[in-house]
């Protein structure tokens, strides 16, 4: 297993030099505490915790997994103690509301910590990650009593949280869920049903678990319009706020999974469990989207983490592993062979991982800044614009990054050759852990329908125009910059084509709605490559400007330009295939009769 090293120089580059986080934080309500010194100290301390405490537990969690006993679920060796250190460090409260014990720091700063935690040990990171979503849901939709009872404990880290959506007969189609909520005389509800695939649903790391559960009230409308949201704690709170008697909710079994073994993925049985309504009746799905959007941005980090961990491991191996000679002559003449990093195909795999990880970091941090503005922007106009941008970027970040992050994880394994298939190196674990990213919190296909159908076509393209206008202005401002010409010209071209393709897909969809589903995944992937082109062009500009000014880090900045060049030459051309495929029409997918698929 590779020793994780937090990529602090690139984190600082994206935050400070690309996205000007210092000015961004100064423009937020309550952002004055996020000074450069404070931010640097937090990230450095977080990096130390991830490198020294969590990273060594990554392979332990994969090897041991979780165990269901009579006393509940036991997490792998060291997880419980690591979580206590996590709580003692104040990490659960970093971005939460100060009125309930939080530190009130910007959400984008919290996502930097989430990146480091998730990269070094994704299974561990899912426990506090789900708590963040639960916290945001109660903070947004809960009553004051809910907040005093549950929010304070979630923010302190004493209790953790989950989201309970999926049932055995329904995955993403929540309109068919069957879990029932019957009113009790005391104003609470009796929740009965079974939920599956519940990450962190039961464990021994905290004294209580707060389940946020979707269920139906008596007489509720059918479909998604009849779903309500409930808080169902593992242990019922006492009057003094402590965890009391056990509620009638239990883990029936643990799923046997391809990866993320260190996280407990549970079948949860609610047997008349006591719960409390959160938000309006029959508006549970609307409230749950607060949780789900948080989770989707968090899942995008998995794509980044898979690429970063694979890159770190395979880069070290490629520098050390000797095999064959360079085609242009020996590069290690005193040794029996050259290190494999000299070979073009190994370079292709390493550079792909590098530009995926660094591009993903830029996209996630950009998206996180929009989340900051939605939460703490100083004007209604600013908050509204950020919300539109966040809605547009979230499905791209979640789906595109998990897709290409998984590709990068596979390339990290491929660099090792046969050794990559062997457990001790950790590369095959990275691949297995990364595979879930394309499935949970809405599959790639669902994210694609959300992007093309809801975010683009249903807004008459306005959400797309908001982003492409930014790209257009960037291209216009730098049109005369000869150093940037190799990036600006293809960026301007794909930005224009993006709008043209959207118009064509929209026109065909007016005649046949199946065209939206047929084009959506290719549209999303195309959009991802276009967004990356914009970010890599911006990163190249920052780097070139720094070298013109004069710097002692010329190798770092020159590597940024060379990485951008690799992206534009060898990855952006993939968009051409997606462009052609999205216009291929639904007929080639829908014409074949079901009975003709197999004989």
Low-confidence stretches: none
Please give the share of residues in helix: 55-70%
CATH architecture type of the largest domain? Beta Barrel
What average pLDDT do the residues reach?
96
**CATH fold category name of the largest domain:** Butyryl-CoA Dehydrogenase, subunit A, domain 2
Protein structure class:
alpha+beta
Q: Kindly, what is the distance between the CA atoms of the first and last residues, rounded to a whole number of angstroms?
A: 45 Å
Major pleated sheet? 7 strands, mixed
- Portion of residues in beta strands equals 5-15%
Query: What is the count of distinct domains?
Result: 3
Main CATH class of the largest domain: Mainly Beta
Output the number of helix runs: 19
Shape: globular
Tell me which oligomeric state these chains represent.
single chain
Question: What is the count of β-strands?
Answer: 11
Radius of gyration of CA atoms, rounded to a whole number = 24 Å
N-to-C series of helices and strands: HHHHEEHHHHEEEEEEEEEHHHHHHHHHHH
InterPro entries: Acyl-CoA_dh-like_C_dom, Acyl-CoA_Oxase/DH_mid-dom, Acyl-CoA_Oxase/DH_mid-dom_sf, AcylCo_DH-like_C, AcylCo_DH/oxidase_C, AcylCoA_DH/ox_N, AcylCoA_DH/ox_N_sf, AcylCoA_DH/oxidase_NM_dom_sf
Domain Acyl-CoA dehydrogenase/oxidase N-terminal: 48-158
GO molecular function, one term: flavin adenine dinucleotide binding
EC number: 1.3.99.41
């Amino acid at each position: 297993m590779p020793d994780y090293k937090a990529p602090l120089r690139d984190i600082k580059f994206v935050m400070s030099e690309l996205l000007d986080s210092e000015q961004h934080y100064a423009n937020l309500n309550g952002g004055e505490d996020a000074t450069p010194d404070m931010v640097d100290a937090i990230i450095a301390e977080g990096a130390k915790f991830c490198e020294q405490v969590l990273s060594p537990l990554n392979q332990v969690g994969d090897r041991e997994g979780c165990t269901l006993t009579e006393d509940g679920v036991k997490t792998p060796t060291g997880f419980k103690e690591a979580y206590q250190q996590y709580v003692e460090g104040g990490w659960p409260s970093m971005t939460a509301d100060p009125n309930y014990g939080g530190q009130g720091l910007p959400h984008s700063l919290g996502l930097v910590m989430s990146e480091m935690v998730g990269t070094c040990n994704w299974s561990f990171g899912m426990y506090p990650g789900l708590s963040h979503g639960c916290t945001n849901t109660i903070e947004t939709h809960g009553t004051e009593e809910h907040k005093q009872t549950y929010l304070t404990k979630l923010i302190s880290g004493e209790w953790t949280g989950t989201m309970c959506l999926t049932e055995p007969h329904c995955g993403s189609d929540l309109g068919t869920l069957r879990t029932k909520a019957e009113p009790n005389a005391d104003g609470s509800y009796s929740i009965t049903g079974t939920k599956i695939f519940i990450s962190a649903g039961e464990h021994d790391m905290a004294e209580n678990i707060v389940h946020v559960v979707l269920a139906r009230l008596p007489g509720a409308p059918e479909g998604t319009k009849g779903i309500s949201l409930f808080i169902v704690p593992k242990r019922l709170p006492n009057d003094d706020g402590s965890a009391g008697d056990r509620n009638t909710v239990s883990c029936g079994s643990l799923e046997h999974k391809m990866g993320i073994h260190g996280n407990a993925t549970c079948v949860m049985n609610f047997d008349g469990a006591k719960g409390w309504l959160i938000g309006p009746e029959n508006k549970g799905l609307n409230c749950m989207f607060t949780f789900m959007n948080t989770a989707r941005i968090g899942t995008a980090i998995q794509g980044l983490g898979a690429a970063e961990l694979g890159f770190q491991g395979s880069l070290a191996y490629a520098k050390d592993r000797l095999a064959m000679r360079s085609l242009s002559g020996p590069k290690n003449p005193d040794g029996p062979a050259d290190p494999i990093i000299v070979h073009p195909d190994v370079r292709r795999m390493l550079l792909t991982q590098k530009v995926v990880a660094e591009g993903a970091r830029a996209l996630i941090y950009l998206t996180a800044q929009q989340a900051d503005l939605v939460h703490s922007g100083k004007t209604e106009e600013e908050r509204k614009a950020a919300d539109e941008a966040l809605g547009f970027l979230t499905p791209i970040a979640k789906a595109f990054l998990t897709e290409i992050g998984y590709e990068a994880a596979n390339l990290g394994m491929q660099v090792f050759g046969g050794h990559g298939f062997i457990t001790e190196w950790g590369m095959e674990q990275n691949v297995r852990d990364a595979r879930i990213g394309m499935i949970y919190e809405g599959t790639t296909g669902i994210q694609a329908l959300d992007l093309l159908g809801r975010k683009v076509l249903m807004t008459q393209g306005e959400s797309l125009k908001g982003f492409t206008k930014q790209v257009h202005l960037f291209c216009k401002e730098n049109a005369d910059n000869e150093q940037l010409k190799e990036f600006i010209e293809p960026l301007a071209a794909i930005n224009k084509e993006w709008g043209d393709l959207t118009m064509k897909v929209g026109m065909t969809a007016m005649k046949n709605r199946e065209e939206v589903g047929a084009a959506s995944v290719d549209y999303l992937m195309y959009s991802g490559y276009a967004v990356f082109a914009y970010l890599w062009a911006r990163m190249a500009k920052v780097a070139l400007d720094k070298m013109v000014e004069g710097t002692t880090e010329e190798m770092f900045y020159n590597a940024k330009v060379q990485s951008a060049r690799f992206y534009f030459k060898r990855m952006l051309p993939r968009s051409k295939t997606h462009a052609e495929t999205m216009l291929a029409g639904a007929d080639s997918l829908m014409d074949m009769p079901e009975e003709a698929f197999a004989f």
